[in-house]
User: What shape does this take?
Amino acid sequence: MRCVLLAMLMAWPVLGASEILVRDIGTIGLFSHDIFAWDRKSKTNLENGRLDLSTIFDYKSGHYWITGGNPKNSDNPPVYTVAMQLVDYYRGRMLRGYGADEARRLTVLRFHEMVRATYERLRGKPLPPRYLRAAVSNQEQAAFRGLHDAIPGHIPLVGRWIDESVSMTSYWLRQTLLNEVELDQPIANFDGDYDESFKNITIPFTGVSFNLMEVDRKFIEANSPYKQADMLAALAAYGHGEISSEEVFFMPDLDSLFAKAFCPEGNPWMPAGECE
Assistant: This one.
């Protein structure tokens, strides 16, 4: 929700659309929160554009890591589940005797492995070995927002006593922890439209409701040369297997975003790598 750029799903093999899993939504959603934190007033990105889990460990000077850091990380069950898995991993390293700094480095490395697994499984090729040191751009964020197409309205629950599914837009159920079976469920692929539930999101106690598709359209068309309708049409063609990933016209923006996010130069928490 809001800026839940879960749709960062780089889910394209060379030919035809690949299977997207619930865990991929959570992994890429947390990825997006780690590189983007859009300030509407200043129209700037408040995150550092690097995959260092600052969204968990640096939010409010690091005082809220135990609950997943930035409240955006509890916007919906897949992202919240992945965030809390990493919090648990970090705590586990501490219990094994690692200091806080080394435990964070190991947790960042673990998250990199998760992102790589999602990317390689769904993109059909590994991440490039060389990264880009340039800052992430608003145009790349706009390309990300176009991919909200893939977010489902509900996640089926497995082995629960009461509920059969959980809403992705429910304020009250946003911190539902998903089990491994639920995380490994496939979801519907790109179809050129947002789930209806994202077109009327209500924030409790505020009287505020909004249409995520319209919010994204305005951002995309203000910060890139693209039209949302054209992006969704390309995604629908890709999701239906009519075109390959290389024919999705905004693919270069997404590839460059990943290359930038993994660049470790000047970042004490990320594993070594070459940037250009």
